């Protein structure tokens, strides 16, 4: 999996970041101000964010899965309801097309190749 890089604005926006420069969010997808552990009402998800304690590669599957929790929790805050906790999956299926009608598939420590 190729890694993404944080956008330049992230480091200067005043929100807490991880060691790679991505926004650091809690398991409700909320950001904290830089130097604070107290969550704000600013939410983030996808490739711009890392869930504290659950660092994962910047792969689309994690952004897609976080999106539903992000939506539910923003709606919950607006309605005064309880937020849900996001538990990112630990592995994912990676497919790499080789341009010749074949691909390599990998999940965790398993890998195989075949026709696409």
The H/E string reads: EEEEHEEE
Mean pLDDT: 89
Shape: elongated
Which structural category fits the helices and strands? alpha+beta
Widest sheet: strand order? 5-6-7
- Give the number of helices: 1
List low-confidence stretches.
Answer: none
The strand count comes to 7
Please estimate the helix content.
10-25%
Written description of the protein model:
The protein is of the alpha+beta class. It has one helix and seven strands; from the N terminus they run ββββαβββ. A three-stranded antiparallel sheet has the order 5-6-7, with no helix packed on it. It has a two-stranded parallel sheet with strand order 1-4. It has a two-stranded antiparallel sheet with strand order 2-3. Strand 2 (30-32) and strand 3 (39-43) form a beta hairpin. The model has no long low-confidence stretch (mean pLDDT 89).
For the structure shown, list the relevant keywords.
two-stranded parallel ribbon, alpha+beta, elongated, 116 residues
Helix and strand topology:
Blueprint: E1 23-25, E2 30-32, E3 39-43, E4 49-51, H1 60-79, E5 93-97, E6 102-107, E7 110-115
Parallel strand pairs: 1-4
Antiparallel strand pairs: 2-3, 5-6, 6-7
